[in-house]
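Lab notes, practical 5.
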Amino acid sequence: MNTMIIKRGMGSVGLGILMAALAALVPPTMAQTAAQTAAAPTGPDANSNTRTLPNGVVVTVTRAGRQPFAYPGPTDSVKVHYEGTFEDGRVFDSSYERKQPATFPLNRVIPCWTQGLQHIPVGGAATLQCPAATAYGERGAGSGRIPPNTPLRFKVELLEVVGR
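Output from the prediction step:
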């Protein structure tokens, strides 16, 4: 449809109303929906870069990422740099120390990561505070290196959603 014809017949106000009505009829893409959801914090942290997920995971975005924002889905594979610490700050794992980013599918990691990384755009960075139940829970990990029922904290840089 020729925009000039619409403008001549409707005027610029009418065109704006028509465009808004048409936009309302087009469903958002999954990426747009994810970006809107992730960009709209709720609760007491609504005016900050921190959001608390329903499972208690706290995501604090420390670097916004590249636009247009792209977020991983729950089954995507991601390439990240990260540092995992206990609440007292002791490091138990770090891709930075190994000088090698890690790549893994989000459906094969602890729930804190699966859910938290979906709120970090590619190129962004965040701190994930993981309640014990969303970390390794009652089983712990690393042959006792991470005791059972231990809350954890991760600094994460989302470098890439693999395959996109």
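Observations recorded by the TA: The chain has four helices and seven strands. The helical segments are 3-25, 30-38, 95-98, 111-116.
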